[in-house]
């Protein structure tokens, strides 16, 4: 019951925030110069055709009316139409968002693996060489521009060594993609029982995941290390050490208690990466949602941008709520 | 302030990596200032006879696909990147932390000011919920692409960080005796904030500045990389990386690798400087480092180290 009450309270706060996000992004993209009607019809359009299309799109209405119309359409599941793809934005996003999600999720898993492992080792021995290395790693990983690091990896593993496939999309051109079920290629390939497609999707994931995973492990590493240090110095750990509990077990108990902070930083990173993967998507021609939004901004195609902002806001929201539920599981004190 | 500077210098001796940070930042600043003296070629003029030349004695970093000298362009680039990042960060720090100080000062009690503080914090929530890069690129697009709008975009996306930082500082400082004392002595709220609250809340803001300048450089380069920031012939690291993009895939690594490495080293330098300021600003960390230093000096000589 407590959880339900909590969720209800959370939603009450969230809806005005979502409205705020839609309003701000609407005003922002509406002020991007460029008339969609002119862009859609091309340079040869007659003024009367442009005027007719403007009227059809509602562009002749005052701004607040346009906003109300957009919100009304949103409530009916209509996110507008992209003039670049000439398709409904919702369809486009449902196709592209899983691509981003797949990339970001695998990257996050790699970041967790690197960050938590190094963090725990560094905390066990704060003056050892692992601690020094992870300190430097944390500082330098945040300093590398991801789009450049991606290029370095492409140069080494594609151009020189020839191990990785060309950075052009999510699957080899000659491989027939599996029937979309989830839109996540690796899962769809497994569902279809197609090892060739699965392998191709994995090999295309390798470099972008390496880029994002390695460069975003820094925050996880830092939080794991500092929380673990605190936990290992706290009374319950000292008591265990005094009682002669083996060190591995002491560390495991400390980690169990450090999990809430680690889960928090992971959730923040997850939300951040949905938008933060844009540049890597562009470098690898990933065809993801972020890339779609950036193309939208650069071509005065506003509905894809609005749709993406909305999608990523809702995604972050789901992640945060899921994390709060995880807290209930991790820390029995909260639910009392 | 001088004792703080002395402390920074002492830290650089204890932790060599901080010294490296200072060295990088100073070098990049000097490169930016003296680029016209150092650069062997013009940063914007192409010699179409020698395009895509690998690194050599004549062209240290090689030439790009239109024949511009990459070394010259790379050392002109901090002029643009550093200026944009520093201006953007300073702007966001000044605007964000002044609003944050006022909001923190008025965030309890009753009346219209409390509601206003609440509204400002919720607005900050909304701004921070945006995907940073898409937000920045949309800002630049709607304001019109120029160096000034990139500065504004950096200021805008970073301002909520300072707002929160300053607010949380002020929340603890507000209940201090000296704040009450200044109010009892008849200073207005604004005078109290300016003279007593802000100076005492500055330390974490300063630590954040250097880190944010690094992020600002990354964001500038990222915007230019997708063609939404600084435009091509102007020497800028991000747009140089973009120019060399296709060449890297076909094996000519130098047009992208050198500017990217310069960019990464610079951001790394600013994060190191930020980390050192963080140590100075955090009494616990400072004590730990200084005691470590004392141990070391005690071992080598008997000279006592005074607390700064």
Write a structural description:
The complex is a heterodimer of chains A (336) and B (308). Helices cover 76% and strands 0% of the residues of chain A. Chain A is built from 16 helices and no strands. With 308 residues, chain B is mostly helical. The longest helix of chain B is centred in the last third of the chain and has 37 residues, at 189-225. At the A-B interface, helix 1, helix 6, helix 7, helix 12 and helix 13 of A face helix 4, helix 5, helix 8, helix 10 and helix 11 of B.
Question: Summary?
Answer:
The complex is a heterodimer of chains A (336) and B (308). By secondary structure, chain A is mainly α.
Q: Briefly note the structural class of the backbone of chain B.
A: mainly alpha
Query: Tally the helices of chain B: what do you get?
Result: 12
Estimate percent helicity of chain A.
over 70%
Q: What is the correct CATH architecture of the domain at 94-288 in chain A? A: Orthogonal Bundle
Q: Per the principal axes of the C-alpha atoms, what is the gross shape of chain A? A: globular
- Our Rg estimate of chain B from Cα atoms comes to 23 Å
SSE layout:
The complex is a heterodimer of chains A (336) and B (308).
Chain A lengths: L1 H29 L5 H6 L5 H11 L5 H13 L13 H36 L4 H13 L4 H15 L24 H8 L2 H21 L1 H17 L1 H8 L4 H30 L1 H6 L5 H10 L3 H29 L1 H4 L1
Chain B lengths: L1 H13 L1 H23 L31 H36 L6 H17 L3 H12 L3 H27 L3 H8 L4 H37 L11 H7 L1 H6 L3 H28 L1 H18 L8
